[in-house]
Amino acid sequence: MKYVTYQRADGAPRVGYLDGDDVVDVGFDADMVAFIEAGATTGVTKAVGRVGEVRLLAPLRPRTIRDFLAFEGHLVNAFAGLGKEIPPEWYERPAYYKGLPDTVIGPGDEIPWPAYTDKLDHELELAAVIGRTGKDIQEGAALDHVFGYTIWNDMSARDTQTRELPIGMGPCKAKDWDGSNVLGPCIVTPDEIDPHDVDLEVRINGERWGGDNSKAMTHTFESMIAYSSQGLTLRPGELLGSGTATGGSGLELDRWLQPGDVIEMEATAIGILRNRVGPKPR
Question: Which of 75, 96, 113, 250 could form a disulfide with 66 if both were Cys (CB 3.0 to 4.6 A apart)?
Fold first, then answer.
């Protein structure tokens, strides 16, 4: 199933699923996180229109956002220009930082350009949505706790990030502005996707800039879920990101986004997440 959050011109956001290009309402009177928590049980379903006739929103507003660094190739590329090597600790555990759920926007939304950066960058990621509560989850059972997978464009203000990282507290304003996290276009349930074999690609204005396959992830979603649930309860609607796929950012190419650029991120079984970059503030 491909679940979506949609909105018609005369209504509030609703939960639905895709049947080809048709959007079907699931008959549930709350948001996606509540739908997942309730067991994703549908009521009376009803076709409400085709994609384009109804607007697809971000598939969910996550309870929490955790972003990992699973692709060694991305780190090799990103660190090369900085004269740095990957620390040995990276191979030992799937570390992460936490983002702000209220910054999330969805497919077709314009990505705001924050006034404090000149180097705006995209980051192509695969993300897992937690579907079942768990604590101290073992890797062998970890994927049983996943509701589905989506695409995550984790935007970055790179010049700001360069000034923040030496402080040692991780990214903050480099990642946090309204519209800095883009999710969509849908959440694909595990029966339709193999998280260990997902082709990921990013195109800017139709030109392929990079991509990879999730086979290349050093840290799997199983290890991310097990690590983050140590002594901590994970709940339905939490989001865990793979980190940037190799070649999935402009940083690795020393190429930067420009106002008006169209970003397309594509993933096997999920589809295409498409957004336009907004104007640069004067």
Answer: 96
